[in-house]
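**Sequence with structure:**
===
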Amino acid sequence: MRDAKGRRGAGASRGRSRKSIAQTASLRYAASTGLPALRLLATKRRDIVAPMSPPLELSASPLGSAERHERPTFAFVAERLWLDFVNTDTGVRGADALHDFERFVLWLEAAHVLDAERSATMRRRAEQQPAGALAVLGDARRIRTVLRALAERGIFAGDVRLAALSEINRVLGRSAGTRRVELRADGTFARAFVPVGDAFAGLLIPVVESAADALILDQLGRVRRCADPRCGRVFQDETKNGRRRWCDMATCGNRAKAARHRMKLHA
């Protein structure tokens, strides 16, 4: 009987701890953005930070577990970092790269935003400062939503462009650090942003700078949505005639060709 009560007490303590972390992340996020703190919705299983889904988590599996080495596969077909970031949502295909902080770090590493050393540093920081990691994960989801609207409707809607501009400037305004050019392991060069102070705040800098370039260089007219209605990916059309239709010819393009071929056979 005592053991059962002890287990219930320990479970309640862990639940309060998770709630406290989420509340702290929400309050810090609100303080950095000037927005109201996100409301916590109590469920039978866990407390969820609304309106985001899935809930903010450091990792779906324990950090440092063997599962980390089973890296998810991310697609980079959009020609621009900010558009590849938009394509990480679950509305497109596969697992959401922002499902938890660990997967977000893996995506940043795959996108060459972080190298292996900095990825390891961010994981250690997340273990030491879970509220900060959850706050930037929530921020990333918010920015992704705004950037998807920019990709799909920005060329036509001035209010969408202004909303994206506000988010870009908000992120740039609260992130201090230095920019430099680094030599990659494969011999190529890449821009890098090294944050000073809040390490989490700098994670989104390369993404929003890529989106800023789209506004500055007037590239929104070249942003397309994949012609396959089941896909949902967006991309930058770099073709000379501006007639690219598919996010990837190896998948959506070939599927469309196969469908046309079957229609001809039936006809």
